[in-house]
User: What shape does this take?
Amino acid sequence: MKTNHSKPAAKAVSPDKVAVPAQRRQRRKKTLNRRDAVLDGLEQINLHAAGIDVGAGENFVCVPRPSVKAGESPVRSFGVFTQDQDALVEWLKACQVTTVAMEATGIYWMSLFDKIEAAGMEVILVDPHSVRQVPGRKSDVMDCQWLQQLHTYGLLRGAFRPEASVRRLRVLCRHRADLVCEGASHLQQAQKALVQMNVQLHWVVSDINGETGLRIIDAILAGQRDPAGLAKLRDPRIKKSTVPQMEAGLTGHYTEEHLFALRQNMEAWRFFQRQLAECDLQIEVALKAMASAEKAGVPPLPAKLVPAAVPGSEGAKKKRARPLHGNNALRLDFSEQMRRICGVDLMKVCGLNLLSVLMIVAEIGVDMSRWRSAKAFSSWLGLCPGTKISGGKTLSRRTRHVVNRASILLRLAALAAGQTDTWVGRFYRRKRAHLGAPKAITATAHKLACVIHHMLKYQEEFLPLDVAIYDLKAQEHRMRYLRKQAQALGFELVARKEAA
Assistant: This one.
């Protein structure tokens, strides 16, 4: 006897007959009436809008009531299989829907988003945080109805989603980051096995996955136990330890179970290193498929309030290009590809290198017209101060909490730029002395975000600001602050005359 386990493609859901107790039904009806009254008087912008509440096992869809026959429900539920998604798209076409608003968490929405977009309909992904506090949302059915209503009146704003070529690059770059983390985890387990055998390799070499460290580990796994013989494998350029110190650190108590764990973790680490090399080849293919930056249609440059340093002048220091090194570094040089795609050389920016530029472009793309200004771009990154004001009093200026990989990369770049003798480094150190390191990192990352937005939008190369000009601006700013403070206290700030 055969059993049919297939789920129905679609199931109509009546919004008026939700299985709730009678005492709750009246309260829900009053809530819906209040909710509809809020929207009365607003102009309907998207007359053919639909709302979808995406779930892990079921999708609820609401279309405009005039688009269905009399007596039919405008709400239907669909499964999550491919045939169910195809049926959902066909039903939207039959209802003449032109724009769709989706609310979802996780990754369940991605395949449905692509299918609806491929069908020629406009799709926006709505942040659940922006609509979750609306009263009257008690079920998935009411969720999709409320989304459809808000989208009809144009009250929803879609989340940022780059174009398809950038999304492909983003998937590969994120996968590469996962491979690095997985390999680092096995390397830590290998170091743990060495410490459990009292082989203090990490105290006598800088990196256990460096050339000397790998030679010593391979010799241990091959059966070498003599500390003097292991110390002969050291590189003569090592400065962290001397030969006697290395022999003392490599004298351990070897056990079979820990050697077995060490061998397996090193094999796993080398496996992920090979995976990284293959991933870099795939990234190269994705970069070649991306379009080059177009110089036509670039908006005119805004007026510069502060002149940049002239290349070759005393205040302009050229950033030195560092060679690729390290086990997790890129196996291929994508510099020319990144210049072609961006139209400018982002690697000239203080604190950025090839890998960080690649990952930032994979997250934000190169089309800066998606944000109305550099301030909006920084706000999307979560690098702007908050504006929590009540009764004319500022309650908090904390930055908004966001989960954004590009923001994390810019914060790391800001920390690296703070160690340089450039205007960015001096800005970071000045803010750190005044506000502390965490806020200084955020402020410097905001500066870098504005620089990147300007370079990609106006296709202008990065010219470092003369540090002398920056110091003069900082001094003028401090003088204005002192005059303002003196005036508030009833004093007048007077410059001291130098003795002849």
Q: What stands out?
A: Residues 466-500 form one domain. The first strand starts at residue 10 and ends at 12.
